[in-house]
Amino acid sequence: MRGRTRLRRVGLPYLLLLPALLLELLVHLVPMVIGIVMSFKELTQLQIAHWGAAPWKALGNYRVTVDFDAPVGATLLHSFAVTCAFSVLTVGLCWVLGTAAAIFLQENFRGRGLLRALFLTPYALPVYAAVITWAFLFQRDNGLVNHVLHDQLGLTGDRPFWLLGDNSFVALLVVSVWKTWPFAFLVVMAALQSIPKDLYEAAALDGAGIVRQIRRITLPSLRSINQVLLLVLFLWSFNDFNTPYVLFGKAAPEAADLLSLHIYQSSFVTWNFGTGSAMSVLLLLFLLVVTAGYLLATSRGRKSADA
Q1: What is the pTM of this model?
Q2: What's phi and psi for 75, nearest 5 deg?
């Protein structure tokens, strides 16, 4: 009887986790394995119906992908550089805006609750609804952005094209930061609640101003949460597909050609699934290496700080 009770107690957690494990297997692991297998095959729209019997290409797709002197590799390298710049700027701006807003809203004043709700609105909106709205705002002739910048303020000599050319990168960055920074604000605002107010009161008695309090108390107290927050923001922005797809369609301008949309175009527009799968595998490996290196570096920094 005791053995049966112990078996139930030990096996119940695994039984409850079984549905989640099965869904994880079907939704993530199985497609991932299939994608890796497809990256070693010569797979186009002609063979997709019988992809298992497609010719084996070994590392041929990877050689084409990393040949930066050829058109496929050159465009992929350019897309990688654009994605890196986009991710760094997005993460930096989101963290700065979110942290500044969270610190500002720690003080009690009339209307603080309304501002908190207002700041979280972009994060609460559906992605497609938010990005489509921005696509209308960035229209050259009828958009509100050009109406304000050109017609009202006269800051531009002519109505710029925001969804074409080099300005497309700025438009993509604005939309991404606008819809992502409330997440950083929410995380930092929650973390600030755990900092004792006695520390700020003692610092104020010692003559420390607001800037010194933020530098000596707030930021060190947020170090552990910021390490996780920055990693999550980087992975989100580096893999962002919805924003450029809704904003530009199937083919983004060269200045805003993110890797996610570039891989989609290689796979589902030019119908070269083998090359697209190879690009996806390389992207996965890159993010795994970056994540592992980042976690290793932050763990070492945390141990040295504790010592």
Answers
A1: 0.87
A2: -70, -35
Q: Give the total residue count for the chain.
A: 307
Let me know: does 203 contact 240? Beta carbons within 8 Å: no
Q: What span, in angstroms and rounded, lies between the C-alpha atoms of 186 and 105?
A: 11
Spatial neighbors of 230 by CB under 8 A, at least 6 apart, are 91, 95
- In one-letter notation, the amino acid at residue 238 is F
Q: How many whole angstroms separate alpha carbon 172 and alpha carbon 40?
A: 33
* Residue 280 exposed, middle or buried by CB count within 10 Å (0-12, 13-18, 19+): buried
CB distance 190 to 182 below 8 Å: no
CB 262 within 8 A of CB 16: no
Residue with tokens 């795994």: 288
DSSP tag of 256: G
Which tens digits make up the pLDDT trace of 180-201?
A: 999 999 999 999 888 888 887 7
Residue given tokens 């309304």 in the structure block: 114
Q: What is the pLDDT of residue 302?
A: 66
Cβ-count burial of 237 within 10 angstroms (0-12 exposed, 13-18 middle, 19+ buried)?
Answer: buried
Give the H or E element holding residue 288.
helix 273-306
What does the longest C-alpha to C-alpha distance in the chain come to? 85
Element (H, E) at 8: helix 2-24
Q: 56 forms bridges with which residues in the sheet?
A: 41
Residues 302 and 307: their CA atoms lie apart, in Å, by 9
